[in-house]
């Protein structure tokens, strides 16, 4: 912590030497910028006093005063509140001193310095408040005081000195702090600023900026006054141009920042603006060049406001859209009046100048035409009459393509928007001849202006994508222009290069799709390949790779030499020395894709040379090994010779782990397709696996190495004994280490890669070796930390004779492992009746949860063997006869059902009558304890047939059905929905889901309501189209909202004399309802969820329910957990559905609940202190977040709540933990 020597500072600042005073200020600034403590007490007062003297006539030197200006902001942040107020008040008074205003000697400079220091203070406060909530909390009262001081100075109409700085300071503080105090000073700021706008031109811009920032936070009275003044001036159209422009800017700010507050005046405002625009254009349009800068600014502002109004109120102003369209058609032709002779412009356009050198720099009429196109573009986007407008647009768009560069750019945007609409060209642009449009775009493409050429390229790309057949008819014209621009911008230096390259690819793709002749495609493909041979940027390469399939398809159609050139180019790109790993990976994938697309058209000799070049490249470019591995893995024949594989194995030590994996994959694939490798190569692979793979910790490399050994053993039986002697004893230690170091799922993959090795050794080695191998496997399983994964090793040896006896003898004292191994062997062998009885009986044995899991796993594995189907029958028999253990046996049946689909297509579960029998038995003897097990079993049957389960549960989804059966069926439907999630639901299944959800009623039992809400939550997470069912919208969602409120019939209260005991049987139902809303709101982060929420509607009703649950006041929610949940959900809802305006009573109720939560006296030391602390944090978070949103942001009630929250020490923690 930097120390501040107050004595030394006072001595330095009081020295007569100017340099020493500056040095004292510099040292103080450096100390204040370090990690200092807050300055309190007399030290702060002394330092502040010394600094304030720098802003008086006692300090004659400007340089010292400038140094003080730099120190003041940092001092303000660390001193006490009292000194902060004193310092800020002094600066404010000094900045507005009357003596400076009257020009007394020296005071003007002091006033400017004080004003600048105050502005820097406000900027630093704003910066710190945005970065740290603790600083925001600490500085908010100071910001409030500074704003109050500045407003009081602004009220003095005679004070003009530093008035613009005062506006700047107020504006700077509005964003981080304004919502705390704006309701207090907003009306005063509004009146002062409006007065300055009308009478003091020099402060107009700053006043408008201040009102623009403050408008969303003004209370209703202040905003009404601002809105009335601005829009009344617009309707009158009175005053000079600059003053009228100021009111237009005010209107623009209000439409942009708080358009929901001007909806009532929007229609009249739009009509007035249209009339004013037509008046201005009519008055000045007859004379060339009559639009001066002032008139252009006014027209530009009017057009911006009109555009904003049309876009913000598409429905409310739809009746005026035709008037806006007429204005557009009038404005877009304004060039004819401005230039007097339209024929000259037409001649220039026909000559191909495309607006270049036609429109003089001093002419500003193009701005009018630019806004005409922008307005029309907005109308096309939002108006319900857009189709009619497009039909009546005539050829204005074509005319605009030959206009000023800025008009051309907005015309290109409009064309992109129009061409993005579905339909034929004649429907989209009925009055614009296609050939004329194409010629105009090609002229723009070849023009000298970069932005124009880029815009034309984008339109042409979209034109090719949406109307390829029409473009293909003009392919000769398009090809010649495109070839020229690609050649002129080759090398990747020009920023237009990527745009032109994208267009070339799109043209090539269009030609390929429309079946254009090969000789017409060849020049385009040749141009692309030609420019890509030059040094290009990474972005150009990525564009080229993204269209690789198109390039390869065209090369295949055209044939030699383009197919070979394409592969050569890709290989040269692969050999580039780049540090971009992502780009290298993309190049490798492109070569792989292109190679197999072009392989049928390539000669055998070329493929041999190409592979030779790739093998050679691996020695210089290690990343090439990944490409080589990908090519060999996809090929059904050997692309490499035995010598090339041997060369790769010789260099394996030179590669990193990724490269070593690829080489081992190449070896494995080469052996799999029958390539004969030499003994030297096989020994090299074995030694590498022994020394590097099995001794390392790279388990992915271990998997690949084992796979390579398996293929070598299969192809060379004599090699099997060599592997068994050297590798297996090391493998057990490696697997044991991996079981401790990796996750269960990944370790399962490692074990499964070792199973084929065990199997091939059993097939090719002697009986004695197999017996030793079995004992080693069982020993490894017995000591494994993850036996459920290691037991899969038995799959490689389970078919051998005598396995069951050896397993029984080995695991005499370890029952759970015995049954696990028994079940695994049972997947491949027929179990005796005694073994099946033991497996079933083991399910009922009491033990740990892990033992129960292993027992179920063993039953599932053994039952998945078709030869052991009697095991399933035994489970069903025990389930129907033993009511006490029925749930356990049903879980066993389910485990078998889950295992069977992956193994046997002819298992008993594929029999429809057998499945019906299971369903019948499950639903007949239901009791409460069996619901979850029975539902899980029913849902597992959907793996075989969804229709059977649907038909079975449908009859039990009636209001008159037994409660237990109904709950079971609903839970089964939820499990089945999770199984089929991600795919579209069949109509029958969707009907059952909907029928289940319709059971959600207040008259239903608690269990049915709870199960139905859980199903609805599962439906939300499944993202199914069923979310948009009208039945769910009209019946289910309202019922979910009803469950957010307490059900009085489920609430029992008992007065125990001084203490009231509450027994709330509906708590779980209510909690699940809140979880449903949470799932919906969280799922609404994606566009699909937003659509579902908007489709359901009832936002005000949902808001009322959440507000009701925000606190116990007014008979609201009493559980603190649900209160906290409701506050968070309310914030999410108001963010996702802005301006969900609650009714007045709801608005007031929320204020009452949050105020009570903030003002309650909490004793956090009691037993429930932690809960109370959490509840207060949620209340603080809710207040902070909703006051950022309308209508709370401009409500005096909630601004007072915000100021209360500001005083809480828990505020920073609440924002950090809950954001």
TrEMBL record:
Keywords from the UniProt entry: Repeat, Ubl conjugation pathway
Pfam families in UniProt: TIP120 (PF08623)
All copies of domain TATA-binding protein interacting (TIP20), residue ranges: 1034-1084
Organism superkingdom: Eukaryota
GO biological process: SCF complex assembly
Family note: Belongs to the CAND family.
UniProt-recorded name of the protein: TATA-binding protein interacting (TIP20) domain-containing protein
Organism name: Trypanosoma vivax (strain Y486)
């Amino acid at each position: 912590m930097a120390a501040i020597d107050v004595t030394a500072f006072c001595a330095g600042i009081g020295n007569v030497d100017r340099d020493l005073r500056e040095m004292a200020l510099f040292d103080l600034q450096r100390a204040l910028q370090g990690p200092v403590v807050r300055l309190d007490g007399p030290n702060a007062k002394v330092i502040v006093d010394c600094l304030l003297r720098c802003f008086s006539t006692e300090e004659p030197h400007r340089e010292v005063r400038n140094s003080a200006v730099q120190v003041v902001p940092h001092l303000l942040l660390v001193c006490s509140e009292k000194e902060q107020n004193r310092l800020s008040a002094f600066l404010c008074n000094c900045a507005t001193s009357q003596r400076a205003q009257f020009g007394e000697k020296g005071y003007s400079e002091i006033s400017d310095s004080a004003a600048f220091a105050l502005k820097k203070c406000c900027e630093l406060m704003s910066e710190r408040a945005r970065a740290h909530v603790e600083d925001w909390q600490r500085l908010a009262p100071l910001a409030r005081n500074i704003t109050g001081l500045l407003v009081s100075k602004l009220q003095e109409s005679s004070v003009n000195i530093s008035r613009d700085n005062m506006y700047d300071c107020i504006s700077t503080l509005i964003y981080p702090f304004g919502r705390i105090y704006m309701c207090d000073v907003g009306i005063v700021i509004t009146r002062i600023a409006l007065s300055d706008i009308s009478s003091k031109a020099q402060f107009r811009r700053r006043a408008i900026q201040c009102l623009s920032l403050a408008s969303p936070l003004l209370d209703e009275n202040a905003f009404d006054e601002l809105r009335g003044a601005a829009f009344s001036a617009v309707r009158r159209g009175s005053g000079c141009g600059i003053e009228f422009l100021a009111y237009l800017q005010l209107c623009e700010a209000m439409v942009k920042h708080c358009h929901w507050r001007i909806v009532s005046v929007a229609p009249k405002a739009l009509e007035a603006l249209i009339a004013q625009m037509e008046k201005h254009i009519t008055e000045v349009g007859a004379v060339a060049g009559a639009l001066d800068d002032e008139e252009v600014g006014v027209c530009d502002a009017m057009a911006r406001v009109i555009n904003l109004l049309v876009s913000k109120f598409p429905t409310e102003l739809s009746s005026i859209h035709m008037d806006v369209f007429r204005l557009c058609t009038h404005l877009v032709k304004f060039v004819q009046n401005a230039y007097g002779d339209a024929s000259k412009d037409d001649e220039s356009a026909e000559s191909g100048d495309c607006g270049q050198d036609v429109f003089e720099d001093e002419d500003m009429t193009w701005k009018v035409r630019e806004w005409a196109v922008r307005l029309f573009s907005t109308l096309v986007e939002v108006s319900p009459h857009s189709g009619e407008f497009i039909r009546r647009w005539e050829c204005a768009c074509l005319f605009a393509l030959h206009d000023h560069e800025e008009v051309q750019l907005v015309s290109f945007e409009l064309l992109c928007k129009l061409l993005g609409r579905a339909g034929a060209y004649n429907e989209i642009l009925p009055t614009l001849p296609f050939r004329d449009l194409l010629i105009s775009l090609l002229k723009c493409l070849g023009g000298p202006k970069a932005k124009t050429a880029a815009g034309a390229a984008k339109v042409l790309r979209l034109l090719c994508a949406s109307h390829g057949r029409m473009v293909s008819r003009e392919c000769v014209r398009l090809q010649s222009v495109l070839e020229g621009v690609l050649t002129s911008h080759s090398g990747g230096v020009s920023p237009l290069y990527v745009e032109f390259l994208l267009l070339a690819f799109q043209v090539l793709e269009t030609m390929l799709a429309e079946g254009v002749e090969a000789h017409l495609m060849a020049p385009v493909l040749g141009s692309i390949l030609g420019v890509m041979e030059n040094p290009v940027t990474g972005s150009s390469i990525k564009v080229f790779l993204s269209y690789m399939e198109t390039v390869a398809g065209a090369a295949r159609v055209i044939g030699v030499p383009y197919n070979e050139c394409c592969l050569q180019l890709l290989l040269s790109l692969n050999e580039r020395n780049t540090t971009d790993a992502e780009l290298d990976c993309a190049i490798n994938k492109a070569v792989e894709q292109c190679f197999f697309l072009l392989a049928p058209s390539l000669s055998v000799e070329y493929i041999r040379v190409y592979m030779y070049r790739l093998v050679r490249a691996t020695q210089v470019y290690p990343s090439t090994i990944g490409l080589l591995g990908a090519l060999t893995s996809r090929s059904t024949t050997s692309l490499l010779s035995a010598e090339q594989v041997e060369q790769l194995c010789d260099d394996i030590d030179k590669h990193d782990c990724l490269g070593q994996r690829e080489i081992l994959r190449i070896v494995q694939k080469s052996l799999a397709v029958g390539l004969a490798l030499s003994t030297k190569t096989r020994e090299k692979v074995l030694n590498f696996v022994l020394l590097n793979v099995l001794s390392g910790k790279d388990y992915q490399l271990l998997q690949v190495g084992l796979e390579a050994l398996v293929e070598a053993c299969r192809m060379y039986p004599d090699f099997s004994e060599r592997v068994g002697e050297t590798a297996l004893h090391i493998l057990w230690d490696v697997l044991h280490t991996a079981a401790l170091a990796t996750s269960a799922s990944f370790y399962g993959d490692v074990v499964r890669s070792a199973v084929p090795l065990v199997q091939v050794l059993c097939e090719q080695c002697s009986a004695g070796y197999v017996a030793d191998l079995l004992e080693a496997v069982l020993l490894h399983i017995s000591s494994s930390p993850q036996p459920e994964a290691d037991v899969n090793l038995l799959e490689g040896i389970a078919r051998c004779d005598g396995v069951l006896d050896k397993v029984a003898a080995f695991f005499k004292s370890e029952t759970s492992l015995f049954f696990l191994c028994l079940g695994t062997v049972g997947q491949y062998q027929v179990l005796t009746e005694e073994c099946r009885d033991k497996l079933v009986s083991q399910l009922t044995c009491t033990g740990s949860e892990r033992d129960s899991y292993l027992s179920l796993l063993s039953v599932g594995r053994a039952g998945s063997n078709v030869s052991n189907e009697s095991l399933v029958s035994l489970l069903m028999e025990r389930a129907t006869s033993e009511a006490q253990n029925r749930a356990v046996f049903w879980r066993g049946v389910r485990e078998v059902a889950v295992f069977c689909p992956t193994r046997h297509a002819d298992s008993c579960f594929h029999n429809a009558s057998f499945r019906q029998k299971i369903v019948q038995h499950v639903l007949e003897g239901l009791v409460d304890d069996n619901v979850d097990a029975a539902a899980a079993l029913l849902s597992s049957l959907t793996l075989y047939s969804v229709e059977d389960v649907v038909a079975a549960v449908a009859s039990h989804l009636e209001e008159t059905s037994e409660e237990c059966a109904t709950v079971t069926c609903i839970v089964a439907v939820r499990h089945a929905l999770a199984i089929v999630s991600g795919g579209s639901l069949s109509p029958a299944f969707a009907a059952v889901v909907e029928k289940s959800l319709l059971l959600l009623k207040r008259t239903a039992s608690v269990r049915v309501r709870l199960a139905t809400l859980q199903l609805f939550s599962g439906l939300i997470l499944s993202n199914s189209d069923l979310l948009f069912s009208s039945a769910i919208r009209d019946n289910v969602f309202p019922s979910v909202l009803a469950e957010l409120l307490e059900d009085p019939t489920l609430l029992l209260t008992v007065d125990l004399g001084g203490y009231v005991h509450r027994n709330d049987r509906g708590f779980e139902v209510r909690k699940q309802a809140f979880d449903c809303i949470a799932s919906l709101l969280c799922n609404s982060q994606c566009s699909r969820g937003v659509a579902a929420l908007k489709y359901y509607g009832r936002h005000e009703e949902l808001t009322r329910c959440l507000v009701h649950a925000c606190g116990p006041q007014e008979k609201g929610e009493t559980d603190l957990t649900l209160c906290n949940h409701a506050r968070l959900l309310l914030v999410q809802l108001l963010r996702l559905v802005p301006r969900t305006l609650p009714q007045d009573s709801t608005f007031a109720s929320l204020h009452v609940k949050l105020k009570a939560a903030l003002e309650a006296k909490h004793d956090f030391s009691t037993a429930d202190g932690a809960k109370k602390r959490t509840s207060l944090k949620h209340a603080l978070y809710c207040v902070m977040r909703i006051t950022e949103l309308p209508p709370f942001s401009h409500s005096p009630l909630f601004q007072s709540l915000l100021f209360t929250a500001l005083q809480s020490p828990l505020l920073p923690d609440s924002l950090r933990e809950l954001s």
